[in-house]
Amino acid sequence: MTTSSEHRVRVGVIGAGRIGQVHALNLAFRVEGVELGAIFDPDRAAAERCAARCRGAQVVDDERRLIEDRSLDAVAICSPTGHHADQIERCAGAGKAIFCEKPIDLRLERIDQALATARRAGVTLMIGFNRRFDPGFKRARQMVVEGRIGTPQLVRITSRDPAPPPPEYVRGSGGLFLDMTIHDFDMARWIVGTEVEQVHALGANLVDPAIGEAGDIDTAIIALRYHGGALGAIDNSRRAVYGYDQRLEVFGSEGCAVVGNVPPTTAVLSRAEGVTADLPLHFFVERYEAAYLAEMQEFIDCLRHDRAPSVTGEEARVPVLMALAAERSRREGRPCRVESPA
Ligand SMILES: NC(=O)c1ccc[n+]([C@@H]2O[C@H](COP(=O)([O-])OP(=O)(O)OC[C@H]3O[C@@H](n4cnc5c(N)ncnc54)[C@H](O)[C@@H]3O)[C@@H](O)[C@H]2O)c1
Question: Domains along the chain?
Answer without folding.
Answer: 9-123 (3.40.50.720), 134-287+319-337 (3.30.360.10)
